[in-house]
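Re: beginner question about structure tokens

> Can someone show what the tokenized structure looks like for a real chain? I only ever see the sequence side.

Sure, here's an example I had lying around. Input first:
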Amino acid sequence: MKPLFPTIICTDPKALAEAVADKFLYLAFNAVPGPLTVALSGGSTPKRLYELLAQPPYFEKIPWERVEFFFGDERSVPPEHVDSNYRMAREALLDKVPSKVHRMAAESGRADEYEAVVRARVPGGSAGIPRFDLVLLGIGTDGHTASLFPGTDALQETKKLVVMNDVPKLKTARMTFTYPLLNAAKKVWVLASGEDKQKVVQDALYNPDSAHPIVGVRPQPGEVLWWLDGDSGTLQA
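And the corresponding structure tokens:
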């Protein structure tokens, strides 16, 4: 059975990180003039990628001064907090490269301010919505992506590009990109690894009636590509 989204399955998490890093290197070298705008994700699988990009040969080959980083979502914690996506990305990669970085200050609750930064820094498409060159996303065992959790209000947002999303099951609110911004991107790469992700990945890829938030990420006219390891993804016959 053909998956609903284009999918690449690698043998293990190391091979997955290497494949994505190779593709990122190619993208950075072949980008049009101007900054390569990239929205980062939290999570263990993206962290492995960031750590790899900070090492040879990627560190020396990628034109980091041409890359401009943003964040697709963030927990409502200070930047030094152990749960901060920014802290993870900073320690794994951002402190080591000369790229411009726009931290998402979710602890402020001012989603409108981050949306203003995105609108000012990321060129817009025909609909006037900023079009990131690349958005990196993960997927939770409940099917959430960024901080778009099942049953939350942000799933219904059609006008705002960045919002504070109340997540009752976690007893917190998180700042997140919404579908209009995610689906305006030129490229979206969904990264997943580990056996605990297999069930949700299989449902999202092979069940046309799946209601997981991740399946709402369908960039038009952009491209979406799922990157999986052997534990999280298998092709169905």
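Each token stands for a local structural state, so reading them left to right follows the chain. Strands lie at 7-9, 36-40, 67-71, 73-75, 100-101, 134-137, 162-167, 172-177, 187-192, 223-228.
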